[in-house]
Design goal:
- Keywords: Membrane, Transmembrane, Transmembrane helix.
- This protein has about 100 residues and is an all-alpha fold.
- The protein has one domain.
- The chain is about 75% helix and about 0% strand.
- The protein contains four helices and no strands.
- The chain is elongated, with a radius of gyration of 23 Å.
- The two termini are about 20 Å apart.
Amino acid sequence: MSIVFIKRARRFVNSFHRRDKDGEKHVLRHRFPLWKLAIHMATFTILHSFYAIWGVGTFFLLLNEPCYGIRHSPMMVTYLGYVRATILIRIIIDPIIS
């Protein structure tokens, strides 16, 4: 969806560029390549999906058995630590990709 908005904005901005004496438009080249945006969105989606899956799974576990979180607290905290590590990995990878 972000790519669609970026392309629309580019077309809108490009319509304001002046024509030179020969009637040709001087359009600026793309400032931010879309392939970079796609890579950032892919890493965000992949590495944050674990957090979303863990949250939904925990929600359904607690609906079926409310005491599950209390009984298995060390295991749940360990899994949450792994999930948060994937988010930390994304934070580290983003500047490297940029």
